[in-house]
Design a protein that fits this description.
This protein is mainly α. Helices cover 80% and strands 0% of the residues.
């Protein structure tokens, strides 16, 4: 049986994934200038990846008997490119910490499928974090 703690973590993960998928999509829409043009597809592609994460987590939660949330965490688009990237780095760092906790709780409960799912998502989040930290570097 899945614990309330794990169910709550899965819903928290869904809220986070919805948040960043909207955040990155809006950044893709509103980013301006030469630098923005150079990376708007990164925002777009990352938004789509995050929405797929939300879907996968929601399907898992539904299978486990939970009800997936439809409410995102607060969205932080940013006023300029530097602020956008700073917000995105923070969001990815929060996800990495949370998903490590989900993996631990799932493993402790013997839920190898949820742990496996989040290991794959964690790999993607670390890649997103690497992308955004690289974009934040100054030449």
């Amino acid at each position: 049986m899945t614990s309330k703690k794990l169910m709550d973590l899965l819903n928290k993960a869904i809220a986070r994934e919805i948040q960043v998928s909207i955040q990155y999509m809006w950044q893709h829409v509103v980013v301006r200038g030469v630098e923005g043009l150079a990376i708007d597809e990164i925002f777009n592609d990352t938004a789509k990846a995050e929405m797929k994460h939300a879907e996968s987590i929601a399907e898992r939660l539904d299978y486990l008997g939970g009800k997936p949330t439809t409410k995102p965490d607060p969205i932080n688009v940013g006023e300029n490119l530097a602020e956008m990237i700073k917000n995105d780095i923070k969001a990815e760092e929060e996800a990495i910490m949370m998903y490590k906790e989900v993996i631990k709780v799932a493993a402790d409960e013997g839920d190898v499928t949820t742990a496996f799912l989040f290991k794959k998502i964690l790999e993607d989040e670390e890649d997103h974090h690497n992308t955004f930290t690289t974009l934040a570097e100054k030449p």
